[in-house]
Design goal:
The chain is mainly α and 279 residues long. It is built from ten helices and no strands. It has helices at 2-15, 18-35, 38-74, 84-128, 138-167, 176-198, 204-212, 215-229, 238-258, 271-276. Helix 3 (38-74) packs antiparallel against helix 4 (84-128) and helix 5 (138-167) packs antiparallel against helix 6.
Protein backbone atom coordinates (compact mmCIF):
# COMPACT_ATOMS: atom_id res chain seq x y z
CA UNK A 1 0.00 0.00 0.00
CA UNK A 2 2.79 2.42 0.95
CA UNK A 3 4.65 1.62 -2.29
CA UNK A 4 1.46 2.23 -4.30
CA UNK A 5 0.84 5.64 -2.68
CA UNK A 6 4.47 6.69 -3.18
CA UNK A 7 4.35 5.56 -6.79
CA UNK A 8 1.16 7.53 -7.45
CA UNK A 9 2.58 10.68 -5.83
CA UNK A 10 5.78 10.39 -7.88
CA UNK A 11 3.76 9.85 -11.02
CA UNK A 12 1.70 12.97 -10.42
CA UNK A 13 4.72 15.09 -9.51
CA UNK A 14 6.67 13.84 -12.53
CA UNK A 15 3.82 14.50 -14.93
CA UNK A 16 2.94 18.00 -13.86
CA UNK A 17 4.89 21.00 -15.12
CA UNK A 18 5.37 24.04 -12.90
CA UNK A 19 4.31 26.22 -15.82
CA UNK A 20 1.14 24.18 -16.27
CA UNK A 21 0.21 24.65 -12.61
CA UNK A 22 0.75 28.39 -12.92
CA UNK A 23 -1.28 28.55 -16.12
CA UNK A 24 -4.13 26.64 -14.48
CA UNK A 25 -4.26 29.06 -11.55
CA UNK A 26 -4.11 32.08 -13.89
CA UNK A 27 -7.41 31.07 -15.51
CA UNK A 28 -9.23 32.07 -12.34
CA UNK A 29 -8.04 35.66 -12.84
CA UNK A 30 -9.19 35.48 -16.46
CA UNK A 31 -12.56 34.19 -15.28
CA UNK A 32 -12.96 37.06 -12.82
CA UNK A 33 -12.26 39.57 -15.59
CA UNK A 34 -14.77 37.89 -17.89
CA UNK A 35 -17.73 37.72 -15.49
CA UNK A 36 -17.62 41.51 -15.07
CA UNK A 37 -18.41 42.05 -18.75
CA UNK A 38 -21.99 43.21 -19.51
CA UNK A 39 -22.78 40.34 -21.87
CA UNK A 40 -21.85 37.72 -19.26
CA UNK A 41 -22.84 39.46 -16.04
CA UNK A 42 -26.50 38.49 -16.24
CA UNK A 43 -25.62 34.77 -16.28
CA UNK A 44 -23.74 35.22 -13.00
CA UNK A 45 -26.67 36.54 -10.96
CA UNK A 46 -28.75 33.35 -10.59
CA UNK A 47 -25.85 31.02 -9.59
CA UNK A 48 -24.59 33.71 -7.21
CA UNK A 49 -27.99 34.11 -5.54
CA UNK A 50 -28.42 30.34 -5.26
CA UNK A 51 -24.98 30.12 -3.68
CA UNK A 52 -25.79 32.75 -1.08
CA UNK A 53 -29.21 31.29 -0.26
CA UNK A 54 -27.89 27.75 0.09
CA UNK A 55 -24.93 28.77 2.23
CA UNK A 56 -27.11 30.99 4.42
CA UNK A 57 -29.62 28.18 4.80
CA UNK A 58 -26.93 25.67 5.80
CA UNK A 59 -25.46 28.08 8.36
CA UNK A 60 -28.89 28.79 9.87
CA UNK A 61 -29.78 25.10 9.95
CA UNK A 62 -26.45 24.19 11.55
CA UNK A 63 -26.76 26.87 14.23
CA UNK A 64 -30.36 25.85 14.98
CA UNK A 65 -29.23 22.24 15.48
CA UNK A 66 -26.09 22.88 17.53
CA UNK A 67 -27.24 25.78 19.75
CA UNK A 68 -29.60 23.63 21.91
CA UNK A 69 -26.92 20.94 22.16
CA UNK A 70 -24.31 23.45 23.40
CA UNK A 71 -26.77 24.90 25.92
CA UNK A 72 -27.66 21.41 27.21
CA UNK A 73 -24.00 20.44 27.51
CA UNK A 74 -23.03 23.67 29.29
CA UNK A 75 -25.82 23.17 31.83
CA UNK A 76 -23.75 20.30 33.29
CA UNK A 77 -20.52 22.34 33.47
CA UNK A 78 -19.68 24.52 36.50
CA UNK A 79 -19.82 28.29 36.02
CA UNK A 80 -16.07 28.73 36.48
CA UNK A 81 -15.59 26.58 33.34
CA UNK A 82 -17.91 28.73 31.24
CA UNK A 83 -14.97 29.62 28.95
CA UNK A 84 -15.32 26.08 27.57
CA UNK A 85 -18.38 27.24 25.64
CA UNK A 86 -16.19 29.34 23.34
CA UNK A 87 -13.82 26.41 22.84
CA UNK A 88 -16.75 24.10 22.11
CA UNK A 89 -18.14 26.50 19.49
CA UNK A 90 -14.67 26.76 17.94
CA UNK A 91 -14.49 22.98 17.60
CA UNK A 92 -18.00 22.80 16.14
CA UNK A 93 -17.27 25.63 13.71
CA UNK A 94 -14.01 24.03 12.56
CA UNK A 95 -15.66 20.65 12.08
CA UNK A 96 -18.55 22.26 10.19
CA UNK A 97 -16.14 24.18 7.96
CA UNK A 98 -14.46 20.93 6.90
CA UNK A 99 -17.82 19.36 6.08
CA UNK A 100 -18.98 22.46 4.19
CA UNK A 101 -15.73 22.58 2.23
CA UNK A 102 -16.23 19.08 0.79
CA UNK A 103 -20.04 19.09 0.51
CA UNK A 104 -21.21 22.67 -0.07
CA UNK A 105 -19.67 23.07 -3.54
CA UNK A 106 -21.01 19.75 -4.93
CA UNK A 107 -24.49 20.41 -3.49
CA UNK A 108 -24.52 24.00 -4.77
CA UNK A 109 -23.42 22.81 -8.19
CA UNK A 110 -26.17 20.19 -8.34
CA UNK A 111 -28.75 22.95 -7.84
CA UNK A 112 -27.07 25.47 -10.12
CA UNK A 113 -25.84 22.98 -12.74
CA UNK A 114 -28.31 23.95 -15.51
CA UNK A 115 -27.54 27.67 -15.08
CA UNK A 116 -23.79 27.07 -15.04
CA UNK A 117 -24.02 24.92 -18.18
CA UNK A 118 -25.87 27.71 -19.98
CA UNK A 119 -23.35 30.26 -18.70
CA UNK A 120 -20.46 28.14 -20.00
CA UNK A 121 -22.17 27.82 -23.36
CA UNK A 122 -22.66 31.58 -23.72
CA UNK A 123 -19.07 32.28 -22.65
CA UNK A 124 -17.68 29.80 -25.18
CA UNK A 125 -19.81 31.28 -27.94
CA UNK A 126 -18.54 34.74 -27.06
CA UNK A 127 -14.92 33.57 -26.99
CA UNK A 128 -15.02 31.61 -30.24
CA UNK A 129 -17.74 33.45 -32.15
CA UNK A 130 -19.28 30.07 -32.96
CA UNK A 131 -22.41 28.39 -31.70
CA UNK A 132 -21.91 25.07 -29.89
CA UNK A 133 -23.10 22.23 -32.08
CA UNK A 134 -24.88 19.85 -29.76
CA UNK A 135 -27.44 17.24 -30.67
CA UNK A 136 -29.20 17.41 -27.31
CA UNK A 137 -32.23 19.47 -26.35
CA UNK A 138 -32.42 21.98 -23.51
CA UNK A 139 -34.37 19.48 -21.39
CA UNK A 140 -31.70 16.83 -22.00
CA UNK A 141 -28.98 19.36 -21.18
CA UNK A 142 -30.63 20.08 -17.83
CA UNK A 143 -31.06 16.36 -17.10
CA UNK A 144 -27.48 15.50 -18.08
CA UNK A 145 -26.08 18.39 -16.01
CA UNK A 146 -27.87 17.17 -12.89
CA UNK A 147 -26.92 13.52 -13.55
CA UNK A 148 -23.30 14.50 -14.00
CA UNK A 149 -23.32 16.31 -10.65
CA UNK A 150 -24.91 13.29 -8.96
CA UNK A 151 -22.29 11.05 -10.52
CA UNK A 152 -19.52 13.27 -9.21
CA UNK A 153 -21.10 13.20 -5.75
CA UNK A 154 -20.89 9.40 -5.75
CA UNK A 155 -17.29 9.65 -7.01
CA UNK A 156 -16.49 12.05 -4.16
CA UNK A 157 -18.02 9.80 -1.50
CA UNK A 158 -16.09 6.74 -2.70
CA UNK A 159 -12.73 8.50 -2.80
CA UNK A 160 -13.39 10.32 0.47
CA UNK A 161 -14.05 6.99 2.18
CA UNK A 162 -10.80 5.61 0.75
CA UNK A 163 -8.76 8.62 1.88
CA UNK A 164 -10.30 8.50 5.36
CA UNK A 165 -9.24 4.86 5.57
CA UNK A 166 -5.68 5.79 4.54
CA UNK A 167 -5.69 8.57 7.15
CA UNK A 168 -6.31 6.01 9.91
CA UNK A 169 -3.60 3.51 8.94
CA UNK A 170 -0.34 3.99 10.89
CA UNK A 171 2.81 4.79 8.87
CA UNK A 172 0.76 5.28 5.72
CA UNK A 173 -1.27 8.17 7.10
CA UNK A 174 1.71 10.51 6.85
CA UNK A 175 0.81 10.89 3.18
CA UNK A 176 -2.86 11.67 3.84
CA UNK A 177 -2.53 15.51 4.00
CA UNK A 178 -0.87 15.56 0.58
CA UNK A 179 -3.45 13.14 -0.83
CA UNK A 180 -6.31 15.29 0.50
CA UNK A 181 -4.85 18.40 -1.13
CA UNK A 182 -4.34 16.62 -4.45
CA UNK A 183 -7.81 15.09 -4.30
CA UNK A 184 -9.43 18.43 -3.45
CA UNK A 185 -7.65 20.15 -6.34
CA UNK A 186 -8.56 17.36 -8.77
CA UNK A 187 -12.15 17.44 -7.57
CA UNK A 188 -12.53 21.20 -8.06
CA UNK A 189 -11.13 20.89 -11.58
CA UNK A 190 -13.57 18.12 -12.46
CA UNK A 191 -16.40 20.07 -10.88
CA UNK A 192 -16.14 23.15 -13.07
CA UNK A 193 -14.68 21.81 -16.29
CA UNK A 194 -17.71 19.57 -16.47
CA UNK A 195 -19.80 22.52 -17.70
CA UNK A 196 -17.92 23.41 -20.91
CA UNK A 197 -16.99 19.79 -21.60
CA UNK A 198 -20.49 18.56 -20.86
CA UNK A 199 -21.84 21.05 -23.39
CA UNK A 200 -19.92 19.04 -25.99
CA UNK A 201 -21.59 15.81 -24.85
CA UNK A 202 -18.51 14.42 -23.06
CA UNK A 203 -19.38 12.00 -20.29
CA UNK A 204 -17.76 12.25 -16.86
CA UNK A 205 -15.48 9.33 -17.72
CA UNK A 206 -14.31 11.08 -20.90
CA UNK A 207 -13.74 14.31 -18.99
CA UNK A 208 -11.48 12.52 -16.53
CA UNK A 209 -9.45 11.00 -19.36
CA UNK A 210 -9.05 14.41 -20.99
CA UNK A 211 -7.84 16.08 -17.79
CA UNK A 212 -5.43 13.24 -17.00
CA UNK A 213 -3.49 14.29 -20.08
CA UNK A 214 -2.98 17.75 -18.52
CA UNK A 215 -2.75 16.96 -14.81
CA UNK A 216 -0.66 20.02 -13.98
CA UNK A 217 -3.14 22.36 -15.63
CA UNK A 218 -6.08 20.66 -13.92
CA UNK A 219 -4.48 20.59 -10.46
CA UNK A 220 -3.29 24.19 -10.74
CA UNK A 221 -6.79 25.37 -11.61
CA UNK A 222 -8.47 23.16 -9.00
CA UNK A 223 -5.98 24.17 -6.32
CA UNK A 224 -6.76 27.84 -6.91
CA UNK A 225 -10.49 27.13 -6.69
CA UNK A 226 -9.95 25.19 -3.47
CA UNK A 227 -8.10 28.11 -1.87
CA UNK A 228 -10.79 30.62 -2.89
CA UNK A 229 -13.54 28.30 -1.65
CA UNK A 230 -11.97 28.31 1.82
CA UNK A 231 -12.11 32.12 2.09
CA UNK A 232 -15.33 33.46 3.69
CA UNK A 233 -17.47 35.73 1.47
CA UNK A 234 -15.10 35.16 -1.46
CA UNK A 235 -16.55 31.65 -1.75
CA UNK A 236 -19.86 33.17 -2.83
CA UNK A 237 -18.45 34.22 -6.21
CA UNK A 238 -16.30 31.13 -6.73
CA UNK A 239 -19.00 29.27 -8.67
CA UNK A 240 -19.48 31.77 -11.54
CA UNK A 241 -15.79 32.76 -11.44
CA UNK A 242 -14.59 29.16 -11.71
CA UNK A 243 -17.17 28.31 -14.39
CA UNK A 244 -15.91 31.21 -16.50
CA UNK A 245 -12.25 30.33 -15.87
CA UNK A 246 -12.85 26.66 -16.70
CA UNK A 247 -14.58 27.60 -19.96
CA UNK A 248 -11.69 29.83 -21.01
CA UNK A 249 -9.23 27.04 -20.17
CA UNK A 250 -11.30 24.56 -22.16
CA UNK A 251 -11.30 26.80 -25.23
CA UNK A 252 -7.63 27.76 -25.06
CA UNK A 253 -6.00 24.55 -23.81
CA UNK A 254 -8.20 21.48 -24.08
CA UNK A 255 -10.77 21.81 -26.85
CA UNK A 256 -8.48 21.36 -29.84
CA UNK A 257 -6.64 18.45 -28.26
CA UNK A 258 -9.88 16.82 -27.25
CA UNK A 259 -11.00 16.82 -30.86
CA UNK A 260 -8.09 14.48 -31.61
CA UNK A 261 -9.35 11.88 -29.14
CA UNK A 262 -11.68 9.13 -30.30
CA UNK A 263 -14.52 8.47 -27.92
CA UNK A 264 -16.91 5.61 -28.00
CA UNK A 265 -20.45 6.66 -28.85
CA UNK A 266 -22.90 5.94 -26.07
CA UNK A 267 -26.57 6.41 -26.82
CA UNK A 268 -27.81 4.66 -23.71
CA UNK A 269 -30.19 6.97 -21.84
CA UNK A 270 -30.57 4.77 -18.77
CA UNK A 271 -30.15 7.02 -15.76
CA UNK A 272 -28.45 4.52 -13.44
CA UNK A 273 -25.99 3.46 -16.16
CA UNK A 274 -25.01 7.09 -16.77
CA UNK A 275 -24.24 7.47 -13.06
CA UNK A 276 -22.39 4.15 -12.93
CA UNK A 277 -20.14 5.22 -15.83
CA UNK A 278 -18.72 7.99 -13.69
CA UNK A 279 -17.17 5.59 -11.18
Amino acid sequence: MLHFITEQLNRILNDMMITDIGHGTAYLAKGFTLIKQPGIRRYVIIPLMLNILLFGGLVYFGYAQFAPFVEWLMSYIPGWLSFLESILWLIITTFSAVIVFFTFTPLANIIAAPFNAIMAEKIEEQLTGEAINSNISLATLVKDSILSQLGKLIYILIWTAGLMLVSMIPLINFASPFLWIIFGSWLMSLEYLDYPMGNHDLTFKQQKETLKKRRGLALGFGGGVMVLTSIPLVNFIVMPLATAGATIMWVEQLKKKQNNYIWEDNDNDDTMQQIAETL
